[in-house]
Amino acid sequence: MKLRKASAAAATALVLALTATACGGDDNDSSDTGSGSGGGDTIKVGIKYDQPGLGLKEPDGSFSGFDVDVATYVAKELGYEPDQIEFVETKSADRENALARGDVKFIAATYSINDERKQKVDFAGPYLLAHQDLLVKSDSDITEATDLNGNKLCSVTGSTSAQNVKDEIAPKAQLKQYGGYSECIAGLQSGAVDAVTTDDSILAGFAAQEQYKGQFKLAGLKLSNENYGIGVKKGDTATVDKINTALEKMVSDGAWDTAVKENFGPANYKNEPAPKIGNIVQ
Questions:
Q1: CA-to-CA distance for 221 and 202, rounded, in angstroms?
Q2: Where is the signal peptide (predicted)?
Q3: How does DSSP assign 80-100, residue by residue?
Q4: Which residues neighbour 227 within 8 Å (Cβ) at sequence distance 6 or greater?
């Protein structure tokens, strides 16, 4: 009888222990994409890996750029320290799918807000207003888009930036399309092309790199408005609200201005003031 009582007690203790372990596991369970309220082990954030000044994976495995600084600040406000952030490369064509699949909690990757994208994802921000511009050599006499007539204009394959300039402004421009902006920059440096076009923030990021210091300049044109937002899975309004609050704090405490100067300053990038957070426009 005593043996039976002891066995029953042991069984009860085992059940209680397993139950406690299961509950404890729920409380401390790590979330691959983050809970949106902090407290998890890690949070996955989508960025670009190949855009200097914005989102760049360095040779030592670290990350740098304005988007990285914004994402790090936002993640901290959500409850995650820098060593709890896992940066995930999200190429432009896969950003909506990455959010829909839950691969990342949010994306900060030169993600321009437009009506088509707003059908698929929700946006916090905007956190930067960029413009399509031209990058030319520092001694270039190209000051207007019309000056591209007869000159070689570079952009990446599949981009509409250069085609828009040719169609609407400089029909005699000679388009050169390369696989990436780094190739366009190399072409500009060698003289193979006369100008590179895309968002001014991206151009400034390249121009600010030490190896290009003083070689290039922005034309200072405003050929389009590109409001960068932070992409969030469609319907996750709670996370959108929290990110907007974090962005407002980043602007008010001066961290936004500091990030702009540190990442774009060497290119003399004349950035727009911080946009009104929560004012989602195309």
A1: 14
A2: 1-22
A3: --GGGEEEEE--GGGHHHHHH
A4: 112, 113, 125, 126, 128, 129, 130, 275, 280, 281, 282
Structure tokens at 4: 């039976």
Whether the Cβ atoms of residue 134 and residue 198 lie closer than 8 Å to each other: no
Burial of 250 (0-12, 13-18, 19+ CB in 10 A): buried
Of 3 and 52, which is predicted with more confidence? 52
The per-residue b/e assignment along 21-35, b for 16 or more CB within 10 angstroms, e otherwise, is: eeeeeeeeeeeebbb
Judge whether residue 195 has pLDDT over 90: yes
Distance CA 59, CA 2 (A): 68
Nearest of 262, 170, 274, 177 to residue 219 by alpha carbon = 170
Q: Which two tokens stand for residue 71?
A: 């994402």
Q: Is 184 helix (H, G, I), strand (E, B) or coil?
A: helix
pTM of this structure? 0.79
Distance CA 116, CA 125 (A): 17
Write out the two tokens for 188: 């500009």
Judge contact between 181 and 162, C-beta under 8 A.
no
**113-172, pLDDT tens digit by residue?**
999 999 999 999 999 999 999 999 999 999 999 999 999 999 888 777 888 898 999 999
C-alpha separations of 19 from 8, 9, 27, 28, 136 in Å: 17, 15, 12, 14, 66
The amino acid at residue 236 is: D
